[in-house]
Amino acid sequence: MKLLLDAGNSRLKWGVHDGECWQAQGAVSHEQIAQLTTQWAAWPIDSVYAASVARQTVADAINQTAPCPVQWVRSAAGFAGVRNHYRNPAEQGADRWLAVLAARSLCAGDVVVACAGTALTVEALTAEGDYLGGMILPGQALMLRSLAQGTAQLDRMAGQVTAFPQGTEDALASGVLAAQCGAIERMCLQLAAHTGRPTPQLLLTGGDAASIAAQLAVPATIVDNLVLMGLLRVACES
Length: 238
Hints:
The chain is of the alpha/beta class. The chain folds into two domains: 71 residues, Nucleotidyltransferase, domain 5 (2-Layer Sandwich), CATH 3.30.420; 138 residues, Nucleotidyltransferase, domain 5 (2-Layer Sandwich). The chain is built from seven helices and twelve strands. It has a seven-stranded mixed β-sheet with strand order 6-7-10-9-8-11-12, sandwiched between helices. It has a five-stranded mixed β-sheet with strand order 3-2-1-4-5, with helices on both faces. A hairpin with a 4-residue loop joins strand 2 and strand 3. Helix 3 crosses helix 7. The chain is globular, with a radius of gyration of 19 Å. 37% of the residues are buried. The mean pLDDT is 94.
C-alpha cells in the first residue's frame, strides 16, 4: 500500500491507497503529525510519497513519523504528457504541479485548476498538455489578516457576502471573495483567449473551494485532495 502526504502551509493531508481505491484519508495540523504513527500502523504501507510547501521542521516531522523512507516529489519539466512551462520548475511548489497532473487525469480539454487554501493558486493547462503557469495570491484568511494588521479600523470579523455591501464587516467578506473569484475568472478568460477555444473547465480544491464556487460567474467542479491524486499518479506511473 502507498501512503501519500501533502504538507501544506497549515495542515498535513494524507491518504492510504491500495492500488485500487483509497482506504483512508485525513488531515491534521503540523503539531499533530507525530500522533499519526499508530493510525498509519493499521495498514501494510510499503511506500511513502510526499510533497511539501511547509517549513523544514514539518518535513523533518514527516520523515520521523512515516513508516518507511519518504520519497519527496518535486516539480518537474514534464510528466505523463504534461509539459511544464515554468521558467525554473525547481523553484515551483510541488503542490501546484501535482494539482495540474491530477487535473489532466480528470479533464482531457483545457482546464483551470484553483487550489484555495492558505494561499490561492490558479493554474492553466491546455488540451495539448501545455501547463502555461499560474497565479499565487493570499487566501481568504490571509487577506483578512493583512487588512486587520495594516489598517487602523479593519480588525474585525468578516460579515456576509453581498452584491452591494452596506457595512464594513460585509465589505470585508465581499471584497475578499470578489478578489478570489476575479483571479479565477480572469485566468479562465485568459486561457480561452490563448487557445481560441470556449471557456475551459474549472476545477476547485481546498478548504475555501465551496465558498468560492458559490460566487463564481463560471461553472466549477469541486474535487477534494487534488494534490494527493497527483501524488498517487506520480507514485503509480514513475
